[in-house]
Every structure is written in C-alpha cells, then in structure tokens.
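Marked as duplicate of an earlier ticket. Keeping the data here for the record.
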Amino acid sequence: ASGNDFVYLDAENIDKQAARMKTICDIAQFMGCKVIRTEGGQPKDAVPEDKWVEAMATSIRACLPFVKEMGMKFAIDNHGYVTNHIPTMLGLLREVDEPEFVGSNLDTMNVRWFGNSLEECDQFYREVAPWVMHTHMKDGFGSRAEYKGKDLGNGEINLKLAVEVLKEAGYDYAWTAEYEGKEGDGVGYEKCLVWLRHNI
C-alpha cells in the first residue's frame, strides 16, 4: 500500500505526489513487486466532488512516465469515500485509459461498506473486472457504523459472482483474503483460506 493521495488540482501537490510515488516504485522494484495497491485519495474542500476524477487522473498521468519505464502497475483500491463512489472509480479508470499500467484493487466488501446496495456491488464487480490487478476478498454485513466483518462465505457479499466475473475477464493476479472479523489467532484467516481453496 502506497498511502498516497491523488485528490489535488494544484501543480505543487501533484508534483509532490508523483515524486513520492516514484520513491514507492523504487522500493517496490527493489523488493520484486510489480503491482502497487494505491489509494484514490481523500475528499478536501479545495477539490469539489465533480473534480475528483480530473484531479486523480492528472496525478496518475504525472506518474505514468516512470511507471511505464519501470514496468510497474497501479492497482487503485476502492477505499474510503472517493473511490468507493462507483461512478468516480469507473470514471477514473476510463479517463486514464491505460489498462496495462493502471487498474483496480477490487475490495469486495469496501464498496458495500460505503453504502452501495448488494445489487450495485454485483454490477460494480461486473464492470470493474477487466481492470482488476489485485484483490482484497472480503466479506461481512452492512455499511458504515453497521458494518461487521466476517470470514469469506459467511457474509452477504456475492463472492462467487466476483470470482466468476474475474475469471471470465482473465484475471491472473493474486487472490488475497482480507479478514476484518473478530476471530483472532489466525482462525478467521484460516477459514478464509479454506473458502479460497474451495472456490478459486
């Protein structure tokens, strides 16, 4: 995870983010990693919602020269308030339109946590599948303050659909469980691993 924030419109902050991401890419390359899970960014008064896509796309384009040269990939997480807004996330991917280098980290629960309906989540999985470069397979119930994490297969998320559409799109990256339930000592992750082994 790069911990970046691409929601800026001013040149100074865009340049700072690009320089920071170059350092992250250098570290990732040293470690043998090619896919970097990135943030979209955080809402801020200086960037109205109708400018989120423009702001993020401009920042990403500032990074593309070194991303391409190094053979890196940005997998933008549907995380927080900006890129869990489905039209913004899909709009960003289409606006940048560099599917070899800029795609999505699909977090199957985050998009529900944001407040999207289960039907909207299912449609999002279908639409984002061709862009996905990494996964956070996550399950649970509810959104925002009502959210409760569960092990894979024991929440309300249609994980089998997510797997199906990713496979249909030719997904060939890591299948990663992210467990946010209450079972400690690795029990929750062990259950997630069992589910992955049975369903991937």
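See parent ticket for discussion. The two ends are 24 Å apart (CA to CA).
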